[in-house]
Amino acid sequence: MLSALFVVGGLAALFGLLLGFAAIRFRVEGDPLADKIDKLLPQTQCGQCTFPGCRPYAEAIAKGEADINQCPPGGEVTIQALAGLLGVEPKPLNAEHGEAPAQALVALIDEQTCIGCTLCIQACPVDAIVGAAKHMHTVIEAECTGCKLCLPPCPVDCILMVAVQPSPTTWKWPYPIIPLKEVA
Fold first, then answer.
1. Where are the beta strands (DSSP E) in 18-113?
2. 18-67: per-residue pLDDT in tens?
3. What domains appear along the chain, each with residue ranges and CATH number?
4. Which residues define the annotated binding site for [4Fe-4S] cluster?
5. What is the pTM of this model?
6. Which value, in Å, is the radius of gyration of the alpha carbons in the chain?
7. How far apart are CA 156 and CA 14, in angstroms?
């Protein structure tokens, strides 16, 4: 019995070493251009661009499969930054995907009305809503991207979108940071 345990343990250790070696040997690097594009996107994960999140949208832009003007939350600032990075002319925001918000928004749950159905928790792409079934929920304001994906599933309409109040932690520089091209 004891020798069988040693054999199984030895095989498990060997298998672990092989997997570890394979992970190091065959490490797949991400697309560096997609990484740079992704850093310029607002990370709302809202899907308004028709992609399931900012990373898939960045990868599509890098492959030339998507235009740089499909991100309403990013608006003109993001379009300008992407155009600078890619060395292309900026385009106006594509209205088919929505319009840029006039100001940053955050979800606010009316805790007296919330029935604890958890549908908003399931819809939130960034896990900014916390709560438990049949108990009130609340929004972690610092994590909320204002994507509005929590609004449609709420059966009691207890979620409001409110303007983010400017503070040292919520203030954003209003101009794009356009990366400088490397000097040879």
1. 105-109
2. 566 555 555 446 789 999 999 999 999 999 999 999 999 999 999 999 99
3. 32-97 (1.10.15.40), 105-163 (3.30.70.20)
4. 46, 49, 54, 71, 114, 117, 120, 124, 144, 147, 150, 154
5. 0.66
6. 22
7. 55
